[in-house]
Request: fold
Amino acid sequence: MFKLGGYAGKILYVDLSKKKWWSEELKQSLAKSFIGGTGLSAYLLWHLLGRGVDPLSPENLLIIATGPATGALSPSSGRFAVVSKSPLTYAWAESHAGGALGPQIKYAGYDLVVIRGCAEKPTVLAIDDTSVEFIKAEDLWGLDTEATTDEVRAKLGKDYHVMCIGPAGENLIKFASIIVDYHRALGRTGLGAVMGFKKLKAVAVRGSKGVEVHDPDKYKEVLEDFLWRNTKGPWALPAKMSLWRYGTPNLVTVLNAIGRLPTKNHWTGYWEEADKISGEALLRYRAAKTSCFSCAIMCKQVTKVENGRYAGTVTGGPEYETVFAFGSNLLISNVEAVIYFNKLCNQLGLDTISTGKVISFLFECYEKSFISRDIVDFEPTWGNEEAVAKIIEAIAFRKGIGDILAEGVAKACKTIGDGKCCDFALHVKGLEVSGQDPRAQKSVGLTWAISVRGADHLRSLTTVDELGYRDVAAERFGVDKVECVCDRLTEECKALIVKDQEDFFAVVDSVIMCKYGTMWPPMYYFDFVAKLLKPLTGIEEFGNVKYLRLVGERIANLKRCFNLREGIGMESEKLPKRFTEEPMPTGPAKGYVCNLEDMLIEYYALRGWDYRTGLPYVETLNHLDLGFVIPVLEDIYGSLPRRSKNG
Amino acid sequence: MVKVRFHTILKEESGLNNLEVDAENLSELLSKLPENVMQILEKYRNYLIILVNGHIVDPKHNIVLRREDIIDITIPVGGG
Amino acid sequence: MGLQIRSLKVDPNLCTGCYMCTLICSFSKFKVFNPRLSLLRIDYNYKIGRLEGYALCNQCGNCISVCPTKAIYMDFSGIVRIEHSKCIKCLSCVSACPNNVIVVYNGIPYKCDLCDGDPQCVKFCLVGALHV
Reply:
C-alpha cells in the first residue's frame, strides 16, 4: 500500500503498438533513492531501454515525468519533464516545460507515464483519471501546434491540457520540439521527432484527484516560508523587477555588458545593437503577463506585434534563448522579427536554440564562401530576415538545404562545404550551443562539456559567478573561496561550483522545481528542498541535506553512466575550437579563451571518476548504490578503475 | 568623459538609456548623476550592481575612471 | 447599523493564471491540493493570457433560504456559513447557488467563509488580483 505524500503512487505504461495500457505501483524504495522526475526516469530508462536502441524506433521510450512536489503548491512546481534517448545526439535526452499540464498528470493519478511502441496511424493519447484512450488523429496530422491544441481541446474538452508536435516533429527534424499549453516548449534534444516517429500527435491530460501531503501542518509552515521568500525575502525584489517584469529577456543588455551575449554565431560576445532586442524593448509588445501553474516568479508573457511586416503575430515569450538565437546570433536587430520567428518555431514545433544555431552556421558558411548562392533561393546573409523565415520553413518541411540542416549542425557540416565548415558548427555531443559563451564565463565551458545532454545550459549552469553573488558564494563554498568562485574569468574553482550545481539540479529536476528560484534567483538550495520534501513525502531521509546531496550525486552519475553505456564518453567532452582557440575578438571579454582541460580534470576528481580512462571508479558507484551499472559497463569497457590502496 | 548605461528597471524608471559624464572616479560620477536618477538608485541601493568595462566593482572602493570607460548600473538579473 | 457584506472580489486584468489561490483554498479546507475542490473557481486562458471566467462566493445568501434544517446562516459580519452539525446533506444549497461555488466533499457541502477573516487565497495571490 503506497503511503508517501506528494506522490500519486502509480506509473502508467502505454504501448502504442498494441494499443494497451496498464499501471504499476511506484516502489517506495525507488522514490526514496531517486525522488521522481528525471531521477526516477533515469532508473527506468537504464532498466527498460536496451543498449544501442535507435532513438527513432518503436523500442525507444518516451517518459513523461512529474515529481512529488508537482501539483502540491511547492514553489515553481508547475513544470514536468520528458525523458528519452535523443535522435539528435544519441545520448541522454531530457527537456522540461512549464504551463499547467504537469500537475494534471499527477491529478489524473500518475507520477510518470512511460510510452513505448509506435502507433500504426496518427494518434492522440488522452489520459483522464482512470481512463486512457487512443484517439484517431489522422485529421490532425499536418496541423501546427496551435491548431492541434485547439482541435484536441474542442474534441475532448477545454479542461484538457495538451502537449503536441507540429510538422517538424512529424517530419522527424532532429531538433523538433514538443509544445505544451500553446506556448511552453519541451525544446531541446529532438523529443518532438521521437513523438513524430511514434505517430503520437499529442498527449492530452486532465485529472480530478488531489495530492495529499504527509504532514499538512509542517507543510503549511513551508508554504509560509515560500510566501515570505517571494514577498519579503532578500530575493523578492530582484525576482519581481527582473524576471517578473521583463521575463527571461531581462538578461540581454546586462549579458552584453559583461561581453557574454553570443553574437554572429558566437564569433563574439558583444553587440552594439543589443538594446534593440532587450527585455525593455520587448515590453512595448506585451499583450499579457502570465504565469505557469503554481509559480510565484511569474516570468511568462504573451507578446503581440500590432503593426508592420509581422502585424498580427501573437506568441508566448520570446525567452532569452530565443532572443539571442534569432537576434544577436543572426545580427537581426528588428525585435518584431524575433517575435515572429519565435511564433513560427513554436507553431512548427522546432527548438529555437538549435534552429537559430543551424541558421547562423549556414550564414557563416556563406560568408566564408563555403557555399555558393545558387544552392539556395535566398541570400543567406547576416541580418536577412526573409532568409531566416524561409530557412525555418525549409527545415520543418525538409525542403532543399532544409533537409540537411534538419539533421543538426554536427551532421550538416559534414555535407555542407565538404566538411570544411565544422569549426563553426558549434555543438557538444551534437547538441547546438546555447546562449552563453565560455570565453566570458569560464564555468560555461565546463558545464557545456560535461552536461549529459550536450551543450546544455540547464543541467549545471552556475549564476554565482555570472554577476558575482558574494554572499551566496560564501554561504555555499566558504569565505576563502569567494574571490575565485565569483571571478567569471578564471577557470579556478569552477569545477567545484559546476559539480555542486549539477548535483543540486539533479535533485531539482527530480522534485520537480523550476530553474527560476533555484538557478536564479538563488532563492532555494538544498536546505530548502530538504525542508520541503520531508513533510511533503514523509520520507525521513529527505529531510537530511547530506542525504539529498547523495541522491543528487547518484542521479547525476546514473545519467552519465547511461551515456557511457551508449558509447558516449570523455571523447565527447570537448568544446568547439571557437571557444578554446579563438580569443574573444571584441567587447569586455576581449582576448579571453576558455581553458577546459584543468577544469575537466578537477571535475573528474570531484565526481569520483578516473580522468585517465574517462570512467567512474567502482568505489564511487558502490558508494552511490549504483552497483547495478558495473557489470554492464565492464562488459563494454573492460574492468572499471579502482582507487589504489594508497588513495 | 565616461559613459554610464542603465539597465532593466533602472532604465525604465529613470527614462534614461545612457549618459556621458565627466568624472575621474566612481564617487565623482555617482555625485554627478541627475537628481531623479539618484533617487532611483537610492530606492534600489541594496541591490545595485555596478560594472566598469564589464567587471563588477565594489562602490565602496573609489575606482579611478579613465576616458571612455563604460559604467553599467543594474540590479541582479538572471535566467537562461 | 447595517451589515457590512464582505466577499471575495477579483480584478481579472491582474490574474496571471498561477492557480495558487485554488490550491491553498483546497489545502486549507480539505488538506488536499486539488483545484476542483477549491471554493473559488478560476478559468484561465493560457492561449491569450487572460482570466476568462471565475466564480466566487459573493455571500448572496440564496443557499440560506433553501436549507431545510436552517443549517446555513449569515453571521454578524455578513459571511454566510454552513453549520455542519445541522446539515443533512440534501445538497439543495448546491443547486441554489447562482455561482455554483458550493463544493461537495465526501458528500458534505462546503462554501467560502473567508477563512475566518484571513482569506488564504488573498494571501497567496501575489499580484493582488484577489481582495476582499
